[in-house]
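Checked the freezer inventory, then went back to the computational side. Two predictions to log before the end of the day. The first one is the construct we discussed on Monday; recording sequence and tokens without edits.
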Amino acid sequence: MGEKVYGLLGRKLGHSWSVPIHQALGCEDYRLIELEPEALGDFLRREDIGGLNVTIPYKRDVMAFCDVIDEGAKAIGSVNTLVRRGGKLYGYNTDIDGFLYMLRRARISLMGKKVVVLGSGGASLTAQAAAKREGAREVVVVSRTGPDNYENLSQRHGDAEALVNTTPVGMWPDMAGRPVDLALFSRMEAVADIIYNPVRTELLLQAEEIDRDFHRMSDAPRDVLVNAGLRPIRYTGGLPMLVRQAVRAEELFFDRSIPDSETERILAGLWQERTNIVLVGMPGCGKTTVGQELAQLSGRPFVDLDKRIVDSAGASISEIFAQEGEETFRHLESLVLDDVCTQGGQVIATGGGAVLQAENRAAMRRTGRVYFLRRDLDLLPTEGRPLSQAGSLEEMYRLRRPLYNAAADVVIDNSVALERTAQLIWRDFCESNGD
């Protein structure tokens, strides 16, 4: 295998997760291949190419160098997989395999639906072809300057039932943004975002929030739910698509069949490796001690957010509150949390008030699975905690509890031994696989 070249071809690939996926599938020599446009032709003429995946911005450009293009790739109008056989370069599109797998896994059906596709690049072509193959009633492509654009979207297509984002809006490292507001769509049932880093984009967080609110109020009359803009929404990020298209590419590289169980195995491992475990809860509820135990149990680095803030400010939290006030502290807290959450595979213990700001809750959830550690107020210490000392813990908890619940994926009762709490969290994390 070492005599041939295998890898991902693109221009800027620092964000890619493809290498660990293909190596997990047995392609140990798979690597990232960054090329400028003028070097593309010479590289693709190399006889030692075994198999390549192709990403932005070359999915259409490589078609000119292919001796044979698969009919499916022709129909889509882009190639994301290249294989050299018998001196000829063959072009395929495995993105559509990944896209359809992603939809099936999330139980999203496009049959008979009006589908809005955001973006008009190579990934958009794949989404359009998949939607048509799945029997969509209508497929609308939205771009910045076309007849269907972001300025007239709600007027022309507010009745869309499914939305697919193929733009980079919300992708690492600029994660704090979404391409559209889902409130524009009164009949939206499904949202798919092909971005995989972060695992939950701002668009998916909004879809999740709408779905959560609907189920919390599902006993209310239907007209009340409709008037409140609430409805059930199925949603998915792009990680299943990424893994499945890579699996299909490996099948083409080496002319072998790979079962779906391998896709799920790699998907679970990648999700767990890249996703943070984030602990929220009242001051003194045990986030630091449970987090340290979790770090030992899982072998992950532990981040104490309050300690990071102290190190950044060069002053204790009590001193920051006394000298600069809570507003300054909260601003610094947001900056540090956002920076911490850009990394993956950590255990993060947040401060008790980190959930107070919506942008903080979003930062936690984009790259992490969030656990609310709930503990009896009588057991919470107040020494050295400015806000706990300043007023009633009961009042603080009353105000914060809805925000802890809004941030959390799972609520954990931390009234047992901390080792047991850590074990419960770790078990849930390993079993969740991002679902």
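The second is the one RB wanted added to the comparison set:
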Amino acid sequence: MIYKLKLLVLFLMLPAALFSQSKFEKKGDKALLKGDYPEAIIQFKNIKNKNAEVNRKIAECYFVLGNYDQSENFYNSIQEKEKNSADLLHLSQINLANDNFTAAVLLAERAGELGADPNEVQIRLDAVRKFTE
């Protein structure tokens, strides 16, 4: 009877263990909360099977650190259907910094379509106009 109870408990706990955050993601989240972006990047990069959320966290860390090339790489590793309005606004900013004004406008407009704050979208579009005038 005790064997069956242990087996039942094991089967009930297994899914929770499989779907819980990895130790690297927990450490990365902790570093992110502290504002230790380089440490967060290290921890998140140690995760073997990165999903869109992990890639987004890495991209945001690089973005905050001003490493736009790496940030863009990680944002681009997220499938288009999984990108949110904040991702697109950051990509718009990166393209603006790289003088790719057409892409900056298109990304800002797409962010607006996905529900980004209209004021943020307008600010981005105005910034592009200043650079192209």
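For RB: The two ends are 79 Å apart (CA to CA). The longest helix spans residues 2-19. Let me know if you want it refolded.
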